[in-house]
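Late entry, written up from scratch paper. The run itself happened at the end of the previous shift, but nothing got recorded in the book at the time, so transcribing now.
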Amino acid sequence: MLHRRSFITAGLLSSIAVSNTFAAKGSALHAHVTYTGSGTVDDAHKLYVAVWDTPDFVKEGSNGTTPIAMKFVTAKSAVAEFTDLDKSPVYVSMAFDPTGKWDAQSDPPSGTSLGLFSTEPGVPSPVQVDPGKITKIDATLDDSYKKP
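Output as recorded:
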């Protein structure tokens, strides 16, 4: 699983506190992600998109934080579709592994490009999802932030 520690290692620290509200089942999120880095996104080199129910995954000391959903895409520009989300707001992160050996079941390897859906660098932006509706976002990942 993609752990909070992975993003701390990359330097994405935040100290905001946001309370979660619950949404009725049936909320959907379509995250259009675009990777503008130098790597090749394909079946072997996936771009992972994670949805979190708290922004705390970027905080130091939040052990055990795991995403509530994860998908991958195999193209530099593609939509990751999440359905039946039951919390709002949610937060979105992205990780591209240039080695093609990471399966997202452990911390990302060194050199993995990491990013957030964010309007302020290093701070995850909340995404409101509404019951029975599809929320669409656009997020971009580049190679400017890599896990050491």
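The CA atoms of residues 35 and 141 lie 5 Å apart.
(Scratch paper discarded after transcription.)
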